[in-house]
Every structure is written in structure tokens, then in C-alpha cells.
Amino acid sequence: MTGPHGLDRGLTNYGDRDFARFLRRSFARSMGLSTALLSQPVIGIASTPSDFNNCHRGVDELVEAVSRGVLAAGALPRVFPTISLGEVFLNPTSMMYRNLMAMDTEEMIGAQPMDAVVLVGGCDKTVPAQLMGAASANLPAIQLVTGPMSTGRHRGQRLGACTDCRGFWGKYRAGSVGSDEIEAVEGRLSVTAGTCAVMGTASTMACLAEALGMSLPGTAAIPAVHADRLRAGEEAGRAAVRLLQTGITPAQVITPHSVENAMRVLMAIGGSTNAVVHLAAIAGRLGIRVGWDRMNAISDETPVLVDLKPVGEGYMEDFHTAGGMGAVLRELRPLLHLDTVDVEGRTLAERLDEPLEWVDRAVIRPFADPVSPVGGLIGLTGTLAPDGAVFKRAAATPALFETEGRAVVFTGLEDLAARIDDPDLDVVPGDVLVLQNAGPHAAGMPEAGYLPIPKKLAQAGVRDMVRISDARMSGTAFGSIVLHVAPEAAIGGPLAAVRNGDRIRLSVASKRIDLLVDPAEISRRLAGHTPPPAPARGYKALYRRTVTQAPEGCDFDFLAGEPR
Ligand code: FES
Fold it and tell me: pLDDT by residue (tens digit) across 137-184?
């Protein structure tokens, strides 16, 4: 390392550098540290436990393991907190706070004296936030995820959050599961520390962090409560110290090629729609953009290989024992950019040249015998979404891929809640449910895109309908759902022009979503559009003023671009 390192980095401004160094070391000694340790390089450990984040229940133990690895490798670990985002404990939605956590992470990495950092996170928004912050801080960094939950059991059936949450809730709404059983299921869905047990957003982002090269190989899917998770923590600590020799920074790891690799992995694992937004935000921090055409080309040539819920049958614990990301990457090898470099300084080619012990082909299928011949997600464009929308074809009903139907419009989240189960709602099977004003500006883009099937249709046996919104959907959800419509309704996108009874056409084959209304009439309707009032103060005012649309990652406009 050249220049100041360890505790001598970034001295506090007193106008006297020697005094600042003297004062810092004096205060550091109050922590009981020896002068020998105070002279070592410093590895920061961004720690995110919170009593409002069940998914991070194991973070303290994991951080201890990282510290052990750092110490064993001859550096000084310094644990520091950042905010923590527990998906189901945040109002109005965790998405609104992802950028706040990214700013917290970036600024604390930059402001405190550390030579490298290990980022410990897991729940949906935390890994994207940490990667965004680390990309902008551009200090050597390693992502360490908390790992997924293990499954529970209910009357002989395996249960895992949160695809099974939705499955059982759907049955409860339809009346086939009673209140006693739903209460029993409530206690059996989330039974350990860790992130959701399926290939939801957290698991998807864990896999993408490894595909990008920001996590150590083989660590994405180790269950949260497995002893290997702690060993991965210790190794991350050692690896962070090795990073001091190579000096590899996130900008050398997150490149156009590694972002494309991550996009391809997203398709192959049948990953979460949310990852499209998060990957755009992470890549955007380094000025990298993947357009809809490129994403769709990648999707069309990449099969779904992983048979996990919500697309298939298994759970993340199965994925780990089946071979994990190492097996997926080897199947995809002919399609990957092999020149990318990971945090260990190895190219992807070097990693994949190593033999793999065993692969469970029931969970991770061979390229020639995939779960689905094409990728899990596609982008849609058309008169309803000129700047794009996302559709998870792997979790949708193929019979609805080519649909033309009558719009049933809900003007916002309150309207949806008030009317979706109204017995007098004018809705029939084959209609298209439309939710407006749930995009980033209007509502922080909550996971409200998984509109419930109207109760009277659910009770009549309807299991899926085309549903369209500018909202997001949980990565654990499923259905024929068009999400992230851009521009969103609140800023005058065509979605705001949809009226009850309009015809809408979805075509997965041509990757289009169209409002079948005369363009002049759409313009006439939008001419009277007024955006909702903006919050007057605080973080929410900043959010509203600067958040970008979904295709740009919903980052703040002043955070994207070049790193420090
Ligand atoms: Fe934290 Fe699902 S709620 S990962």
C-alpha cells in the first residue's frame, strides 16, 4: 500500500495533521487496542443487525467470524453499523430506503479510516444498497451475504418464505384453507435466521453478487445457520486482507462484462424481477447500462437451469447442496465473459477451470435439459410502457402470454384495497387488472404489483390473470404480472391514461405491452394529468425530487455515474 493506511487514513480536519493523528491514536487506545494492532491495516466490516430485521438475526455471529479472519490474516477489524432494511418491517416500502442505505454505506466507507471493507447483508434491499455504496466508494470491498433460511414443515409439506406464504394466503382467500390452519402456517414459514428460503430477491441478489465477482466463490447459497456460513465469514475476512495486496476495487470487478454475466445468471436462475432494477442501479453507479434489447437477447439465449420456487419446486438449501452458483456458472460457461475478475483477483475462466465435486441434476439442470429453454425475465415495450416494463415469464401462465383483454383500473393502492374484493366489482376472467400510481415517485414503488385475484373470481377457481402496474413484485411471487411500467403514472406515463373498459394487449412473443387506444385520445387524457403533491421536507422530499425511473434503477439522479 502506498500513502497513509490503517488508522492514518482520512484524518479529521483540525488544521494540524500531526495533532489529528495523535488524537485519533490516543482515542483508539481507549478501546484497549495494543500499539501493534493500531499499526496494522484496517478492514472495516459493515454490520447490519437490527431488531427490525429477522433476516439478519445471525449477523453478529457472522461479523465475529469475519473479524476472526481479519485478525488471523494480520489486520485490524473494525466493525461499524449502517442502517438495516428488514423487508416486512418498513413503511411504506423498503425500496424507499435502499438509496438511503446506499448513501450511508458509501459515506461511512469513505469517511472512516479503513483500507478495505467487508459488507455483511442479506435482506432484499441491503445487498443492492451495499453494492451501490461500495461501487461509488470504490474502496476494495467484499460482499458477504447472511445466507438463506432453512425450510419448515407443515403437515408433511416443506414450507419456505415466502412463495409458500403467498400460496397459502391465496388458498385462505379462496376459502380452501381455514383460519386455524393459516395461523399454524404462520408459525412454520420462517423458522430460522436468514433470508427468504426461495429464489426471491435476496437469494437472487446473493447469486448476482457472486456472478459479478463481488462475493467469494461458492458463498451465495450457504444456509444462514450452516457452519459453512461462518467459515465463509472467516474466509471473507482473510480475503479482505489479501485485497490490500492486489488493490482490486469494485470498479475493476463490476464491469460491462461482469454485469452481463450477472444478467445472464439472473435469467438462468429464474431470479427476481427486482434484480433488474437493482442491477441497473449498481451498474449505473459505474456508468454501465444494459438496454432492453440486450437484456432480451440474453434472456432468449439463456435457459432457466435452476428448479427452485417460485419458478419450480426446490428451496435455496437444495440449491446449495446441489452445487450452487459454481454449477450454474459452469453450465453457462460458453455464454459468459470469462475475462472478468473477482475480488480474489482470479478471472472467471480460472475459477471455472477448477473441477466441481458433484451436481444434483434434479435441482440444477444441464444446459441441454433445462427447466425452460429461455430465460426467466423479459423486458416489454409498447404504447403502454414506452420506456419499458418487466415480465417474469418463468413464473407466469403460458396460456396468458398472448392476451387481449378489457382493463379494470385501480387508481392507487387505497382504491385497490377498497374495491378488489367488492362483490359488485365489474370484473370477469380474461380481464386485465391495472394498478396506477404505485411507481417510484407516487409511492416508493412498493411490492404491490402482485394484485390479488378478486375474491369472487378466486372463489370461482381463477388462479391467474394479467396484472399491470408501475409497482414491483416480491421475488417470491408468481403470476402473469407486468411490472415497473415506465414512465410511471404519477409523472404522466401512458399508464395514467388507462380507463375502465380500454383494451390492452400483452404479447410475450413480440415483447410488447400496448394500450389499444387512439394515440390522440391518450394524449388528450394525459393533458389534464397532474402529479401528486410532493412531500415538503426531509428524506422523502429528497427522494421525490431525485429518484429515477425503474429502467435507471430508481437510484437518485445525483448518485449515478462515476465513482469517487
Ligand atoms: Fe428478508 Fe425475504 S424478508 S429476505
Answer: 999 999 999 999 999 999 999 999 988 998 999 899 889 999 999 999
Three-state secondary structure call for residue 416: helix
Mutate to test the pocket of ligand 1, among 48, 53, 55, 97 (most ligand atoms within 8 A of CB): 55
Measured in degrees and rounded to the nearest 5, phi and psi for residue 356 equal -105, 140
Closest by CA position to 259, among listed 285, 290, 217, 297:
290
- Which cell is 43 given? 478492514
Does the predicted TM-score (pTM) go above 0.85? yes
3-class DSSP assignment, residue 11: coil
Q: Tell me which residue has cell 435469467.
A: 267
Closest C-alpha among 177, 187, 211, 156 to residue 329: 211
- Residue 309 Cα to ligand 1 midpoint, Å, equals 14
How much distance in Å is there from the Cα of 61 to the middle of ligand 1? Answer: 19
Q: Report CA(8)–ligand 1 centroid distance (Å).
A: 38
What is the SS3 string spanning 156-211? CEEECCCHHHHHHHHHHHHCCCCHHHHHHHHCCCCCCCCECCCCCHHHHHHHHHHH
Q: Whose CA is nearest to atom 2 of ligand 1?
A: 196
